[in-house]
Task: inverse folding
């Protein structure tokens, strides 16, 4: 006798493929078992595709509906959902695109997808209040290099060699940008995504600001974070002030650990 686990695994395989191993376990109840299985299969595929399309509308526009439908099907077979929340259906889609498109002219799809997934993460992240700049007045000069800044939860960074923010903007409803005007030979994209009161803001950051904030997200001390910035004429004070005024920082603490120990 098959165990419940065996039957559940067989059902999963049958939903994701066209095999018939689950058919003997289905009660017809007026509908042939094969048709019952097809109903489950169609519902799973349609729901999966709809959730993925809602998460990656720009990718669907870039590739076209037929390509996206095929891509969604292949993605579902390779990375079936393991969560009951459809919000997370597309979590590994950028990885799937990297695996399938990295050696093609469409490799930039991967980074556009990373941007769209970051948007989703920022959209549902917990709310944290921005740092009050006045609170830094209590920090002494000797303590500054030991500061550890914690960025706000509803914030993500995406870096790409491609102009992915311009690509994203060009494919928004009623956008005045033309895809043919997008240059692929410019500087890398350093994109900040941060949730405001009623929207997710996306903007390009200066190289120094991006690296500094990236270091903060990794929990690095301010002194070491500053050393990671190799930009010529880097002004730490100006960059830090800019990040605070953009309300990217939630809080700070002074690291009490002695690194010489």
Result:
């Amino acid at each position: 006798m098959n165990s419940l686990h065996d039957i559940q695994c067989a059902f999963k395989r049958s939903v994701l493929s066209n095999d018939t191993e689950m058919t003997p376990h289905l009660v017809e109840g007026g509908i042939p078992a094969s048709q019952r299985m097809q109903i489950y299969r169609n519902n799973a595929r349609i729901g999966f595709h709809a959730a993925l399309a809602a998460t990656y509308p720009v990718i669907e526009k870039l590739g076209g509906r037929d390509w996206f439908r095929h891509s969604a099907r292949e993605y579902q077979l390779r990375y079936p959902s393991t969560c009951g929340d459809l919000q997370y259906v597309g979590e590994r889609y950028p990885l799937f695109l990297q695996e399938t498109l990295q050696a093609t002219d469409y490799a930039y799809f991967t980074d556009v997808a990373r941007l769209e997934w970051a948007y989703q993460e920022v959209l549902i992240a917990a709310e944290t209040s921005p740092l009050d700049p006045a609170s830094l007045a209590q920090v002494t000069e000797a303590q500054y290099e030991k500061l550890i800044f914690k960025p706000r939860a509803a914030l993500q960074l995406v870096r790409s060699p491609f102009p992915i923010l311009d690509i994203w903007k060009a494919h928004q409803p009623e956008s005045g940008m033309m895809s043919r005007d997008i240059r692929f030979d410019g500087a890398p994209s350093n994109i900040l995504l941060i949730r405001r009161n009623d929207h997710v803001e996306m903007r390009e950051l200066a190289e120094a600001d991006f690296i500094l904030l990236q270091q903060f997200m990794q929990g690095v001390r301010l002194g070491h974070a500053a050393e990671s910035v190799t930009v010529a004429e880097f002004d730490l004070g100006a960059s830090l002030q800019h990040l605070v005024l953009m309300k990217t920082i939630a809080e700070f603490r002074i690291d009490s650990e002695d690194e010489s120990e």
